[in-house]
TrEMBL record:
Signal sequence region: 1-23
Keywords linked to the UniProt accession: Signal
Lineage per the UniProt record: Bacteria, Pseudomonadati, Pseudomonadota, Alphaproteobacteria, Rhodobacterales
The species this protein was found in: Salipiger bermudensis (strain DSM 26914 / JCM 13377 / KCTC 12554 / HTCC2601)
Taxonomy, superkingdom: Bacteria
Protein name: Lipoprotein
Record has Signal as a keyword: yes
Amino acid sequence: MPDLSIRPFAAALCLALPSCGIAQSLSDITPFDPAVMHRTARYCERHWNEIYDDPRLSELCVGSFLCGDGGCETGTVIAVVARSREEEMRTLLARLPVEDMTPCDPGDPYERQYVDPLGGDGAPFGFNGQTEKLEGREVVPYCGKTLPGYEADVVVALRQMGGDDIAAIRRGIGAGAMPAQLRLTAPQFAAIRDAGALPLRAPLVAALETATGLPCETTARQTCAVTAERGRLKARLLFPDGALTGRAGHWEEAYLELYPTNPSGDLYELSVDMPITAIRRWPGDRRKPVDGFQSLDRDGGFAAFRQGLMSAVSDALEDGRIGGE
């Protein structure tokens, strides 16, 4: 791993981290390096390589990230650390672009499989070929999330610090997962990620104004607020009379998040999530509402609205306004 400096974007990260101050230096973080990320993020399963007894496959698996058929899940990191080095790891985590990283929760339906990673008949998902070095030792598993786009960097930094005392992985997702995404080049990914998604704000605001035919502002008759927070661009939208989906006579609400992701290897994407979409139960000619929305899943009108926004942002990416080569 080359010793590259992360200082050019340390200031942007400080704005996003909850306790970034004089004592919190980010100089030790493994910086974004496309060649290194490509080499260490290959789909790999050491267990099967050993069965097939192919030394070339085993060599490729050294330091790799095991993910599912659909790639690596956005933002998630799992680390199993020897109890003797737990505090050292926590000190490192305080310097990394981590949103939260705490001991895995036995009550969480997914995290509980990592609570006892060395017990049972087999390693939990993702840890085949990773935890053998920790067998017979007292360990503590940590589950957490990184700031958008820093999953690979955090895993590499933990592995470099821990050696034989830490097993760190990215969690995988299954085949067929289809979140709304735009493909990014490596320079675009770095430019968006390192600036906390701010380069996306202007094209998104312009796209919203074109789609709704109204200025993107918050008034007594609408809400249109676009902010950058913790590495994501967030848009809160509330419009009457079908401005979002064309359904005249209804209040409509949508919430969007845009953030860069690195699903695997040399694949870089921009995720466009819409976790909240709703149509107001009351007629659109009433005053601006504050509650009473009916949540919708996979609604065609909101999906079309999102596709229109993504097309406009894609145009900004293609013409070099964001992260040009």
